[in-house]
Design goal:
globular; 10 strands; two-stranded parallel sheet
Length: about 350
């Protein structure tokens, strides 16, 4: 009897170990932003669907890319979400693999802008945002990006520092408006430098701007659409500008780590994230603007996001190669002409 009991316990233990060994684990590298919402709307539902375990690593882009580089020979991350430029940087460093889009059932539901953002087949966009100008329509009129530098307005604006996500895109659009569209952004940086003593602040975080506008210290600032919701709650009128030169913005993309042993699972997770259901849920919580064109949103939600085919087509994004190759030059030029 004791032998039978011992044999049963041993079999049970072996069975349990076998189940643990068979449990698949997917390690993803993501931004720290809105992780509670992602857990509820993306991570937990996927774990339930795949019967696997998700390990989520968060951090800023520099830290996360550095970790991928350090572990290039033996990857510890299977899939990551990064900016377009960071995806190109990872591709140049041999850190990511080409994406087999035939394994993504939701690929053809994406806006064209998100299908192959860098034109190299190494990434797929899952969310994008517009960058334009939040402004006081009772105080000023915005028809062009150059209007921000008019004598009657420039003393009431905030401008993003060149090292922020919004800095280069805003400068890019100002350069277009000035008729001097060169990759070095020399003309718009020089124009900002001429008015550095007038501009209220060169902001680092968009959260600073809501209070400044409420206190009427500023009337306008270039911002990303993801920051817009805070302005809609102010006690003063605020509008989203539609300058004649258009809007710029940014896109976040998904990549698969080269040499990952879980690429099939990573592709399943990417496909799940790109589904109409998941993209709708994230949009309704104002977490991400949807890259899936089948997502339908009520006006009160859509107005706080970058939404719709016309908007997607109109975005003038800085090419990733330009961003990577010119970034150090932008900072040097900015420090020379504007300083901080």
């Amino acid at each position: 009897m004791k032998r039978l009991l011992l044999a049963s316990v041993t079999l049970l233990a072996l069975s349990s170990l076998g189940a643990q060994a068979e449990e698949r684990t997917l390690t993803i590298s993501v931004y720290a932003f809105a992780q509670d919402d992602y857990k509820k709307l993306v991570y937990d539902p996927f774990e339930a669907k795949c019967g696997c375990k998700l390990v989520v690593e968060t951090g800023n882009s520099v830290e996360r890319l550095a970790k991928m580089q350090e572990n290039k020979a033996n990857p510890v991350v299977d899939m990551a979400v990064v900016s377009m430029a960071d995806a190109l940087q990872a591709s140049r460093a041999g850190l990511i693999d080409k994406i087999d889009t035939s394994k993504l059932s939701n690929f053809n539901k994406l806006y064209d802008i998100a299908k192959d953002p860098n034109g190299d087949g190494m990434s797929v966009g899952y969310t994008f945002y517009a960058t334009s100008i939040a402004y006081r329509p009772d105080k000023m009129k915005i028809d062009s990006w150059t209007d921000l530098l008019k004598p009657e307005y420039v003393g009431h604006i905030a401008w993003p520092n060149v090292t922020t996500n919004q800095g280069p895109p805003a400068l890019y659009m100002l350069g277009l408006a000035l008729g001097k569209n060169t990759p070095d952004l020399a003309a718009p940086i020089a124009a900002i430098g001429e008015h550095k003593g007038d501009i209220v602040t060169f902001y680092e975080k968009s959260s600073q701007l809501v209070q400044l506008m409420q206190q009427e210290e500023i009337w306008a600032a270039p911002i990303g659409r993801f920051s817009w919701a805070g302005f809609t709650k102010l006690d003063v009128p605020v509008a989203w500008a539609a300058p004649k030169e258009g809007q710029t913005g940014g896109m976040n993309v998904m990549v698969v780590t080269k040499g990952s042993k879980n690429q099939d699972l990573a592709m399943q997770f990417m496909d799940f994230w790109l589904s109409t259901e998941v993209q709708t849920a994230l949009a309704m919580k104002l977490v991400d603007s949807p890259a899936n064109k089948e997502v339908k949103l009520p006006d009160d939600v859509a107005n706080n996001l970058t939404y719709g085919e016309d908007t997607a087509k109109s975005l003038k994004l800085i090419p990733s190669a330009v961003a990577l190759d010119q970034r150090d030059g932008w900072v040097k030029e900015w420090n020379d002409k504007v300083g901080q």
